[in-house]
Amino acid sequence: MEYIYGDVLFVINFCMDFLSLYISGKLMHMKMSRLRLIIAATTGGIYGVVAVAYLSGIAEKAASLLLGIIVCMIAHYHKNIKRFVAVFALFFGVSLFMGGAMTFIYSNLGKYKNYIQVGGAIYTVLDDIPLYVFAIIAVASVLLSWIVGRIFSRKKHTAVCEAIVDFGGKRSEIRCMVDSGNLLCDPISGTPVMFISEKEKDIIPKALHEALDGKTDGLDFDIIRKLRFIPASTVAGSRVVVAAVPDTVYIKAGGTDYEAKKVYISVDRDGNDFGGYSGMVPLSLCN
After folding, report:
1. Would you call 164 exposed, middle or buried from its count of C-beta atoms within 10 A (0-12, 13-18, 19+)?
2. pLDDT tens for residues 184-203?
3. Residue 57 Ramachandran class (φ > 0 left, ψ -120 to 50 alpha, else beta)
4. Is 1 domain-assigned?
5. Res. 158 pLDDT band, cuts 50 70 90
């Protein structure tokens, strides 16, 4: 008779949840905290042990779905509901894929051929697969995380540019990633839109920034004329992006000199990390 050891089951579930959360976060370009990922994966690992021991049937399926939402909220909570639903769906899909991959490995590399059963005693795959195979799987998991991180690291592989932004005589210098996928522009003038991260919002004057936040009561004409309302479609759905009109913006890309560009500026509200840079500039501004 073969038994489940709680620590072994916990480690397996922790690793699976951590990898699934990490990969889904990278694919969605979410800002990720190592601590939140660890807490989320730990929660999933503990639940995995409890579920095998005490839950079954419909109750187990309902609890697993609820736990999946909780785990995803811990790691990737976002105030935009549609964006959170998208990252949760991706997390669910990645988890299914990795679960199927692990089942394939267990079935083909070990003696274990049946599903885990609970009834008097709890059967498991312990000792069915040699320890060295678990070590290989662990190393492969680490390599998979590293490869995904390299593939989706915008900072390492994305072109960057320097930008000087001028609002009311106040000049700010920032470094931005260049994104060929950013095609957002004003439908009337055709002026492209660049995004800056939340931490760089002080680039924009306070009154104008508050207007971008939706605080439009009592705005004077000078502020209103510097606002643009631009329809946009993203993975999270359709919305209106509120952008500000700067006095001047200078862009320097590659070995070129700074060149004045006509562009609107909006503060990102979706928690994008921009590959670690201060903002995102459309490729059209760097040509």
Report:
1. middle
2. 999 999 999 999 998 888 88
3. left
4. no
5. low
Dmax (CA) for the chain in angstroms is: 80
Cα 143 to its chain centre, rounded Å, is 20
Tokens describing residue 83: 């964006």
Q: 135 and 247 share a domain?
A: no
Kindly state the DSSP code that residue 272 receives in the 8-state scheme: B
Tokens linked to 179:
């994104």
Distance CA 27, CA 284 (A): 24
Which pair of tokens denotes residue 154?
């915008």
Using CA atoms, how far apart are residues 120 and 78, in angstroms rounded to an integer?
43
Percentage, residues of the chain above pLDDT 70: 74
All residues at 6 or more sequence positions from 185 whose CB lies less than 8 Å from its CB, including other chains: 191, 192, 193, 230, 282
Q: How many domains does the chain have?
A: 2
pLDDT at residue 247 greater than cutoff 90: yes
Q: Which residues contact 77 (CB under 8 A, 6 or more apart)?
A: 84
Residue 278: φ, ψ to 5°? -85, -15
- Region of 9 (left: φ > 0; alpha: ψ -120 to 50; beta: rest) is alpha
Say if residue 75 is in the same domain as residue 172: no
Burial class of residue 217, CB neighbours in 10 A (0-12, 13-18, 19+): exposed
Task: Kindly report whether the global pTM for this prediction surpasses the value 0.85.
Answer: no
Last residue of a domain, one of 152, 181, 197: 152
